[in-house]
Amino acid sequence: MLIVIQFWGDRLNIVISNSSGLPIYEQIKDQIKDQILSGELEENEMLPSLRKLARDLKISVLTTTRAYNELEQEGYITSQHGKGFFVMSSGSELIREQLIKEVELNLNNAIQAAQRASMTNEEMLELLQLLLEVEND
Amino acid sequence: MTNHYLELNGVSKTFSGFKLDNISFSLPKGYIMGLVGTNGAGKTTTIQLILNMLKMDSGQIQIFGHDHVKYENVAKQYIGVVFDHVFYVDSWTVKDTERAISSFYHNWRHDVFNEMLRRFDLPLEKKVGELSRGMQMKLMLACAMSHDPKLLILDEPTSGLDPVSRDELLEMLQEYIQDGERSVLFSTHITSDLERIADYITFIHQGQIVCSGKMDDFLGRFRLIKGRHKELTSALQERIIGLRITDMGFEGLIDIKEATKYKHLVLDAASIDDIMIHIGKRK
Amino acid sequence: MAGYLKMARLDYYTMKSQVIIYLTLAAIVMIFGFMGSSFMIMCITGSWFTALLSSNIFAIQEKNGLHRLYGSVSISLSNIVMGRYIFYIFSFVISFITISIIYVFMILLEIKALELLDILLGFSMSLLVYSLIIGIQVPMFFKMGYTKAKIWTMIPFVGILALLIIPSFTSVLSGVVETILSHQVFLVIGGFFISCAILFLSYRFSLFAYRRRE
User: Fold this and answer.
1) Do B252 and B199 belong to one domain?
2) Tell me: the pLDDT tens digits for A32-79?
3) How far is C10 from chain B (nearest CA, A)?
4) Does residue B241 sit in the same domain as residue B110?
5) Are residues B92 and B153 both part of a single domain?
């Protein structure tokens, strides 16, 4: 007896909102980035082709092209000529750089908030240490 | 083969009372281009010139990289055409239509035609004149696509169609360009059809090209500006296209380069409709 | 298959639904036949009606916007015009054959008799009448389209009808018929060549007219 099971859960899913205010290509980028960073999209996993994506989402090919090109520039995906687009390994330098940039941004935000709250540098560092200890537990 | 399936350069044609003036645009292979404009703007004339149904006064048209007149008969083997009204004899049945049309093409695909009939639910024995408008469009599309065309030219194919038929057509067009080797030129004044699926857009107004290029660039070039009466300076008034003043305030279209000076006012993204409406008000 | 032949075939498909009308024509001719006309008169009547009915192709073309069909397939302007003339000639041939068959029946029923010269004369004279009518009509149709040209194209019909009805013309006509009957061979050949010349000139006019159509 042959049982065929189909998994839908692991596939790349993108949902476009017309009212989100964000351009469509941005929404695609964000959702793919999220799924890469969260691990839902694994390294070397192949993404749908530009045209297949455009057709499934009912958008233009140039829109998907822009999204994929920008993702490639930012280091999240890579294109292999003739084969398609693939998720870059998550250990890549570029992704790490992006994540480090994110840390820098968040730290700057924290510093600014701390300054508005009139915290001293020592107080800030103490807080940071405390949080790290909590994280590592 | 060339990368651009359709190239128009300085195409002009004068009629009494109307002039199509200096039309230039090009459609690369693998993409969908929308040709928009109000009724009478020159869209149908442009298509007729491309198909050599009318002779242009000046300019150059290249189809698949070859002159559209010299290579007319070869080119048309690879072009599928759909018009807003059915152009078959109304006493023909669907079957008669295939028999009449297929004789003109070297590469007629009877299997593809039948598949499309099945998909569209078009009965073989029904007369063309008895089909609903949507079914007539589907018949034209079936004939247009059954000889392996590389270029589809559609002149207002969705006018008079219900939303379901329109959606089916758009889906077919997206399916058609999947292999990246085919292009679509789609003229319409129903812009919602194009807004999402068209890669390129050419906007014709009163016989002239307003702009032509990638959809993103087109939409990104303008903003819709809105504000209160007191904010409407004379400098701003000069820059606004298609100004509309009501009791509540004003609104209009503005070039994005100018818009940077007016960040204190409401600046919305402009849709194709907004652009068409305000440019239409301009002249 | 050459472009103009494809066009002629398309015209045939276009007119196919009008077959009933063509059969009615045959019936009318039969009535004439029983009224005691000669073969030549029957042929001329037949070709007169055929010319009238065949111009419906322009009507159907206009009504259904077929010029858009012609514009989207691989046929040139000269193919379209030439094909149309081939279609008209084809209609004439069919009508001639039909009348001949009807006449054969009448011969078998011993109502009529026929000689070779009568056949040739019938062919030649009816071709001449046909050519005169369509030779004038077709370029007008190509230039102005069916609806606008319709009034003007009635002229050759009205002209010929007048010839047949107005008494002073009838006497001239009987004179002409007598001449025809006394110089038959000459007229058979002459009629045929004049018809060809008219059709050729008409074709050239049509090409010119269609290029500058409204």
Assistant:
1) no
2) 988 887 778 888 889 999 999 999 999 999 999 999 999 998 888 999
3) 6
4) no
5) yes
Which B residues in the span 208-267 are in contact with A, Cβ-Cβ below 8 Å? 214-216
Among candidates B180, B196, B199 on the partner chain, residue whose Cβ is nearest the Cβ of A58: B196
Cβ-contact B113, B122 below 8 angstroms: no
DSSP per position, B215-259: HHHHHHTEEEEEE-GGG--HHHHHH-EEEEEETTEEEEEEEHHHH
One domain, residues B233 and B170: no
CA distances from A69 to A59, A62, A75, B211, C173 (A): 16, 10, 10, 25, 86
Tens of pLDDT along chain B (283 residues) come to: 578 999 999 999 998 889 999 999 999 999 999 999 988 889 999 999 999 999 999 999 999 999 999 999 999 999 999 999 999 999 999 999 999 999 999 999 999 999 999 999 999 999 999 999 889 999 999 999 999 999 999 999 988 788 888 888 899 999 999 999 999 999 988 888 788 899 999 999 999 999 899 999 999 899 999 999 988 888 898 899 999 999 989 999 999 888 888 888 888 889 999 998 898 887 5
Note whether A60 contacts B: Cβ–Cβ < 8 A: yes
For chain B, the chains sharing at least 3 beta-carbon pairs closer than 8 angstroms are A, C
- Do the Cβ atoms of B31 and A62 come within 8 Å? yes
Q: Which residues of chain B neighbour C60 with C-beta distances below 8 Å?
A: 89
Is the Cβ–Cβ distance between B65 and B1 less than 8 Å?
yes
Residues of A in contact with B216 (CB under 8 A): 25, 62-63, 66
Q: What is the CATH number of the domain that holds B17?
A: 3.40.50.300
- Looking at B164, B187, B218, which one is the last position of a domain? B218
The alpha-carbon gap from C55 to the nearest alpha carbon of chain B, in Å, equals 16
Residue A46 is classified by DSSP as B
Q: Is B24 helix (H, G, I), strand (E, B) or coil?
A: strand
pTM of the model: 0.84
Measure the CA–CA gap between A86 and A127, rounded to whole angstroms.
Answer: 40
How many domains does chain B contain in total?
2
Percent of chain A at pLDDT exceeding 90: 44
pLDDT value at A20 more than 60: yes
ipTM, 2 dp:
0.89
Average pLDDT of the segment spanning C83-94? 94
Q: Is the dihedral of CA B46, B51, B52, B54 positive or negative?
A: negative
Chains A and B lie in contact, requiring 3 or more CB pairs less than 8 Å apart: yes
Instruction: Label residue A10 exposed, middle or buried (CB < 10 Å: 0-12, 13-18, 19+).
Output: exposed
Is A52 within 8 Å of B198 when comparing Cβ atoms? no
CATH of A24-87, one of 3.30.70.560, 1.10.10.10, 1.10.260.40, 1.20.58.100: 1.10.10.10
Judge whether B102 is closer than 8 Å to chain C, CB to CB. Answer: no
Same domain, B236 and B106: no
Domains of chain C by residue range: 3-211
CB contact A101 to B (< 8 Å): no
Does the beta-carbon distance from B215 to A61 stay under 8 Å? Answer: no
Question: What domain range includes position B188?
Answer: 4-218
* Distance separating alpha carbons of residues B247 and B228, to the nearest angstrom: 9
- Determine the residue type at B227: G
